[in-house]
């Protein structure tokens, strides 16, 4: 883990009309780690992720990427930094195959025609680099894939573009036990390969299985950010539901313990 976080947010505020969704939020994510972002429904997780991805601008606050302040006003600008977000709906096209999905909107061309051979090779290399063995052919249509395989393709699509930070929104939602285990193994492998991974999940078993740190949002505020090994399930549940647990809480951590 590097001393400088890949992503650091300081004092982030965001309102929609009269409703303030984020209040002075702080957040950090380091390379080589999985940082879980947890909170109850309405805690502000989705809004924070959309701000990270350039969909919503901050009202105020600092966005630091690899230690330098940046301005992110669009998903294209976020992608240029190396930020890729895999949303819960995956944004895959069932009628296209794996290669076509992974390069959708970023197709490689040779003159006026698509360079199918290069795209197929890059897709296969990316899946192999992630040790994905459940996909038999990169020319399979996405409609023929299982839920776990679809999640795998969406994650591979995100890391294909030399990304540095990958945000995964509920990657194991609606998956069976075996598929969940495969996806969690892939999530852990991303961090072990040096990427910065942010995992959003309601499943605390998944969070404790793969994360290095846990950041908790409560009613739009950072309740705490702690090392996973330093807290229990019960403490995280208290932070999610009440905004504090014993010594852990905004009054003592200022939203970001180390």
UniProtKB/TrEMBL annotation:
> Which keywords label this protein?
ATP-binding, Nucleotide-binding
The organism encoding this protein is Streptomyces zingiberis
Question: What PROSITE patterns does the record tag this protein with?
Answer: ABC_TRANSPORTER_2
Q: PANTHER family, alphabetically? A: CARBOHYDRATE TRANSPORT ATP-BINDING PROTEIN MG119-RELATED (PTHR43790), SUGAR ABC TRANSPORTER ATP-BINDING PROTEIN (PTHR43790:SF8)
**What CDD domains does the annotation carry?**
ABC_Carb_Monos_I
Q: Name one GO molecular function term.
A: ATP binding
Q: Does the keyword Ligase apply?
A: no
Gene3D superfamilies xref list? P-loop containing nucleotide triphosphate hydrolases
Domain ABC transporter residue range list: 7-244
Note the InterPro entries from the entry: AAA+_ATPase, ABC_carbohydrate_import_ATPase, ABC_transporter-like_ATP-bd, P-loop_NTPase
A Pfam family annotated for this chain is: ABC_tran
Q: What is this protein called?
A: Sugar ABC transporter ATP-binding protein
């Amino acid at each position: 883990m590097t001393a400088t976080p890949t992503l650091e947010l300081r004092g982030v505020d965001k309102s929609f009309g009269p409703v303030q969704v984020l209040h002075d939020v702080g957040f950090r994510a380091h390379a080589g780690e999985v940082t879980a972002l947890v909170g109850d429904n309405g805690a502000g997780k989705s809004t924070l992720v959309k701000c990270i991805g350039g969909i919503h601008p901050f009202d105020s606050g600092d966005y630091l990427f690899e230690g330098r302040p940046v301005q992110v006003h669009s998903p294209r600008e976020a992608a240029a930094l190396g930020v890729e977000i895999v949303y819960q709906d995956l944004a895959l096209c069932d009628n296209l195959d794996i290669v076509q999905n992974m390069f959708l909107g970023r197709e490689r061309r040779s003159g006026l025609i698509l360079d199918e051979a290069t795209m197929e090779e890059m897709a296969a290399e990316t899946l192999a680099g992630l040790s994905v063995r459940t996909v038999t052919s990169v020319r399979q249509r996405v409609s023929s894939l299982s839920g776990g395989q679809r999640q795998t393709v969406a994650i591979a699509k995100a890391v294909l573009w030399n990304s540095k930070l990958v945000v995964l929104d509920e990657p194991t939602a609606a998956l069976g036990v075996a598929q969940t285990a495969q996806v969690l193994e892939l999530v852990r492998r991303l961090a072990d390969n040096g990427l910065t991974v942010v995992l959003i999940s309601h499943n605390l078993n998944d969070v404790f299985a793969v994360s290095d740190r846990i950041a908790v949002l409560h009613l739009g505020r950072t309740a705490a950010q702690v090392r996973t090994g330093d807290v229990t399930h019960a403490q995280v549940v208290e932070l999610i539901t009440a905004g504090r647990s014993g010594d852990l809480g905004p009054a003592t951590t200022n939203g970001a313990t180390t």
